[in-house]
Amino acid sequence: MSEELKCIHCGNSCGNSPVIFEGNPFCCSGCSTVYQILNTNQLKQYYQIEPMQGIRIEDEKKPADETYAFLDLEKFKSKILTFSEGGFSKVSFFIPEIHCASCIWLLENLNSLNPGIIQSIVNFPKKEINITFRENEISLRKLVELLVSIHYIPEINQHSIEKPTTDQSDKKLFLKIGIAAFSFMNAMIYHFPQYLPGHQFLEPDIRRLFGWLSVALAIPALTFSASDYFLTAYKSLKKGIISIDLPIAMGLIMLFSQSLIEIISGKGIGYIDSLTGLVFFMLIGRWYQGKTYQALSFERDYKTYFPLAVTQITETGNQTIALEDLKAGDRILVRNQEIVPADSILKSEMASIDYSFVTGESMPVAKSAGDFVFAGGRQIGNAIELTIEKEVQQSYLTQLWNQAENPFTADNKLKTIINRVSQYFTIVVVLIAIISGIFWHFNRPEIALFAFTSVLIIACPCALALTVPFTFGSTMRQFGRKGFYLKNTAVIEHLYKVDTVVFDKTGTITNAQMSDIRFIGKKLSKEQLRMIKSLVFHSSHPLSKTIFNFIEADELLDVSDFQEIPSLGISGKINGIKLNIGSKYFVSGGKTENENLKTEVWIYLDSSVAGYFQLENEYRPGLGKLIQKLQQTHELHLLTGDNDAEKANLVRIFGTEKNLHFNQTPTDKLEYIRELQKRGKKVLMIGDGLNDAGALNESNVGIVVADNVFNFSPACDAILQSDKFASLDKFIRFTRRSMRIVYAGFLISFLYNLVGLSFAVQGTLTPIVAAILMPISSVSVVVFASFSVSLSAKVFKL
Amino acid sequence: MSVVFILVFAAIIMAGAFLIAFIWSVKNGQYEDTYTPSVRMLFDDPPVKVAEETEKGKKEKSRSDQSQ
Questions:
Q1: Is residue A477 domain-resident?
Q2: Alpha-carbon gap, residue B68 to A410, rounded angstroms
Q3: What is the CA radius of gyration of chain A?
Q4: Which of A40, A109, A172 to mutate to test the interface with B (most CBs of B within 10 A)?
Q5: For helices A647-654 and A623-633, angle between their N-to-C axes, nearest 10 degrees
Q6: Are residues A275 and A329 in the same domain?
Q7: Whole domain around residue A357: which residue ranges?
């Protein structure tokens, strides 16, 4: 073959028969359509900013024309629009496909495509677009269809209309940091003269002014910036728990009251610089820890998966109704690429349901009239008619979600390492404070109170509180860079504690795409292979595509009389020879009983059955090694909804059949995890589809393996990019290093505390000692934590 | 030394002005997206379709950009 042509829209290979438009090659008609739209609207710059970055959607995967009809209904419109008045409307969409500068450019120039769009602004990290438009010129439905026409499909579902679009808590944290920084910097200026030799010659007026200004600065820092620490300390104390916030709150109050005493008595200007500095550093830690992956969603439940509306078939014609109004017995229409929203019975003759989001299995399942269809499948092909059996809430999958309430989330928080440490820490500190107070009370009563407060001041566990956010925050960033995205930093600690790993099979340890193909039957000649390849080229069925890619042949032959019979197969004539390709029933008339239960594609060629292609899921590369390594430290289990056809292979990989379980329903998986946990195991569940959702939620840590991390994945604690699957053991082992770094950080901050306490118990804690010791301890812990994490990530070759 | 009083107040007013500017920028949403503007500023002018319409569009865009 000569030089490979690449589609100028998406950069994919054009194959043997590119679509040519204006001399440019395209891989498919979808890509060339987008090109034409952009071309006629002078938006060709899209291809110059970043070449070949267009989004490819195969024609058969395009949503049907009527899919967005529900957006014309007032009920949904009012929910989706964020603002609508005087003919102007605003809306914001999450578009997972946004990925490059070209995307930003095109989406921000939408008004070239339709003048009714006034302004569109992209938020790249969130993969979000905010559009202002005139509703009388372009309706919401037309707007969405416009985006779809250029292959930017917005995600519209229950979840996206429920959640508020702007995150207020983030803004508030920024404000808190800003005000703390302001107070800290200015307080330092006022305190600095105190630390220089000769400060005793400072005019008392100036000293008083500086003192009171500092107090004024401390008030917003305490009441606004540090308010959370007081609040959580109070809340957890009410529940009888000593959290890390309690000693912090105590320290802050002591710092402030001691400073106030000194300023009022005119002795000095107190510790306000240390106080505001602590608040500032701790807020920075909170911000560092809280920075998460904005475009990734870890909270998706069935609501994000199901559509907002469905088409109901009534006697008076079709109508669009909201999903929650759907009742058992209703008849609905599900078009190409739409999702079956509830458990139902098929009325149409044939359907081909893709359960890849549910089971991880990429091959569509054929259903015939009267078959039971579980909710969550995606219809591929013509529109089908269904009768609803159970309401959406009662469907098998949704029920799974509703019953799976994670009992661990509640007390997980309390068992974190920092809270365990702070319990002892607080008790010890209070004891030391009381003892030194009592000691001085009998020896030098005038410094007893001062010694007491000094201990509480210097023991304020700021450095301690910073260790965890910075260590785990850096670890999370390191993981993110390598394709392992955590929901929050707490996951690291849970991952460290895990002793049992449960795998799902299809789509998790195997590739979602079937790529292990064998031909069983007569030996085929080169010419015959070429004929098969030519015929499957005309079909869009995933199996046809797999076979097309499998057969190596240069030129395609002309096919006449091509026919595609849904769910059965394809047929056609090449050079007068008839070919049938499809199910066994279709090709040979034999029953589709299948002893080894593997996917087969039968070939009828030249008036006889030539044999069949057998397709299997291929195990992810590196699986064997990963299992071997994990086996040394963890107990491994496998749960799969499939039959035991693969048992022999799996036993070879896992080394034992003890923990391999086949034919597991989603509920079985959930129960299995519960059973393990009852035996005291800390379980890590690795899955991919909706059928694992219950188990993922129930387990201590749930990891989802995904080919595209921005696409739908069930609720979980972490998302692992599928090509990084083999390094999973590294991630798990790295959490042990992170924990060691946390312990080292604790040690450092204890050492600082020890030094500080030696001053405090003697009653010689001066503002300058506090002002030096407290920021240094915080900064050094922060530097130590982030440095050692990135260093060990390098050494570890993460 | 009384000059220190003046300096102190001048310093507070300056710092206060920056604090207010910071609070304004947060409330304005400038920290919500810290990446896209860096890409946006490198784009050429919007594509010229119909001269007068684009003129109008540009003004509108820049106005709303500011208010954003």
A1: no
A2: 40
A3: 32
A4: A109
A5: 50
A6: no
A7: 302-403
Rounded CA separation A4/A395 (Å): 48
Within this chain, do residues A750 and A732 fall inside the same structural domain, yes or no?
no
Cβ separation B34–A125 shorter than 8 A: yes
The answer to whether A457 and A272 have CB atoms below 8 angstroms apart is no
| The two three-digit tokens of residue A99, written as one number | 């990925």
Mean pLDDT of chain A: 84
| Interface residue A100 vs chain B (CB under 8 A) | no
Do both A664 and A766 map to the same domain?
Answer: no
Instruction: Give per-residue pLDDT as tens, B32-63.
Output: 888 888 888 888 766 555 544 444 444 444 44
- Among B1, B6, B26, B65, most A C-beta atoms within 10 A, so best to mutate, is B26
pTM passes above 0.95:
no
Query: What are the structure tokens assigned to A532, written together?
Result: 């098969």
Place A279 in a pLDDT band, splitting at 50, 70 and 90.
Answer: very high
Q: Are residues A53 and A89 in the same domain?
A: no
- A117-123 and A378-379: which strand pairing? unpaired
Domain tally, chain A: 5
Let me know if residue A766 belongs to a domain. yes
Question: A274 and A199, same structural domain?
Answer: yes
- Exposure letters A577-599 (e unless 16+ CB within 10 A, then b): eebbbbbbebbeeeeeeeeeebb
CB contact under 8 A, A125 and B44: no
Dist. CA A435–CA A45, nearest whole Å: 75
> Who's near A269: CB < 8 A, 6+ residues apart?
A190, A191, A194, A207, A210, A211, A214, A259, A262, A263, A767
Interface predicted TM-score (ipTM): 0.78
Is residue A297 assigned to a domain? Answer: no
Place of tokens 């048992």: A647
Of A53, A56, A4, the closest CA to residue A25 belongs to A4
Is A355 part of a structural domain of the chain? yes
Are residues A496 and A424 both part of a single domain?
no
